[in-house]
Write a structure and sequence with these properties.
alpha/beta, Rossmann fold, 6-stranded mixed beta sheet, two-stranded antiparallel sheet, about 15% strand, vWFA_dom_sf, lipoprotein, Putative lipoprotein
Length: about 300
């Protein structure tokens, strides 16, 4: 793990040499938006109930490019203890939604919901579970009414047929936006005004406009724009916890059968994560994500304690 929370690693901008060693504008210039003070956030504190969450929406944004088979397996292996730890720690939370999206459009998803940001209900392609995972008890997202270990293992093994132009931030924004999250959308019912949002991002690439010698598009905007979109979806930024498992540990190695080793340094994704009060960073090349999630539970607990429902 290369950081134990927001601002915990003053050298977080140093990354491994090689494929991720490009000069990039991290978007850190200028002040981060603070939607938790005054204005909108202050009004919600007055209008809402006592702070504290009783519901949790967990959204996993999973890179499905060719180098991610091992990382997906690592995530799936770590999930049971993570969700059990959250449920044990958040004594007052009795309702959980769990969803998975990929970092681009997902052709193997159910018909009508193959666009970017649509929750995964079935998988296909190389290294995928290759199963129809839903519909789940609540519809297109998992809940505590499902066998979360089994359904998550199915949906999170999205495979490695995705494009190398990963766009995790665009996928996150679309997943939370009204087109998908609103009435009639592919993610209808998943995102709740009265639930803490926990985003788990896992990728071994930066979300940018460059990869080796090719110019790619990446997600539109910069870290402050992505931050603002999540804050707007939850009314205030402190109503979300962002847990990012990304590249940035010097010398890290993620061996893959494809021969693709290492993880690209991700200063833009790191900057996005560190803008949040409840942002937490981990190393995508760690041999196990268990220690990361063990520490992340405390971050989620703190976010839950200060949660203010959107009126």
């Amino acid at each position: 793990m290369f950081s134990t929370g927001v601002g915990a690693d003053d050298e977080a901008g140093e990354g491994p040499e090689g494929e991720g060693d490009e000069a990039e504008d991290t978007g850190e210039a200028g002040p981060a938006l603070d939607m938790s003070e005054g204005g909108q956030g202050e009004g919600m504190m007055e209008a809402g109930d006592e702070p504290g969450c009783t519901k949790v929406d967990l959204l996993f944004v999973i890179d499905d490019s060719i180098s991610m088979a091992g990382e997906q397996a690592n995530l799936i292996a770590s999930f049971p203890e993570f969700i059990a730890g959250i449920q044990d720690t958040l004594a007052n939370a009795d309702s959980y939604h769990v969803g998975v999206v990929t970092t681009n459009a997902y052709a193997y998803n159910a018909g009508g919901c193959q666009q970017m940001g649509a929750l995964v209900t079935q998988t296909g392609g190389a290294s995928a579970s290759g199963q129809v995972c839903g519909p789940f008890a609540a519809g297109r997202y998992m809940s505590d009414a499902d066998d979360l270990q089994a359904t998550f293992a199915c949906a999170a093994q999205v495979g490695i047929d995705g494009p190398t132009d990963e766009r995790p931030m665009e996928s996150l924004e679309i997943a939370l936006g009204s087109a998908h999250a609103g009435a009639g959308g592919c993610n209808e019912g998943f995102l709740r005004n009265d639930a803490l949002l926990v985003v788990v991002l896992i990728t071994d690439e930066e979300d940018d406009h460059f990869m080796l010698y090719n110019t790619l598009e990446g997600s539109p905007g910069d870290p402050p724009d992505w931050f603002a979109a999540v804050a707007a979806a939850k009314g205030m930024e402190s109503n979300a916890a962002i847990l990012s498992i990304i590249g940035g540990q010097p010398g890290n190695v993620c061996p893959e059968p494809s021969g693709v080793d290492g993880a690209e340094d991700a200063p833009r994704l790191r900057a996005f994560t560190e803008m949040f009060t409840h942002g937490f960073l981990g190393d995508v090349c760690a041999p196990s994500y268990g220690p990361f999630f063990d520490e992340a539970i405390a971050v989620v607990e703190t976010a839950c304690e200060g949660f203010v429902p959107i009126p």
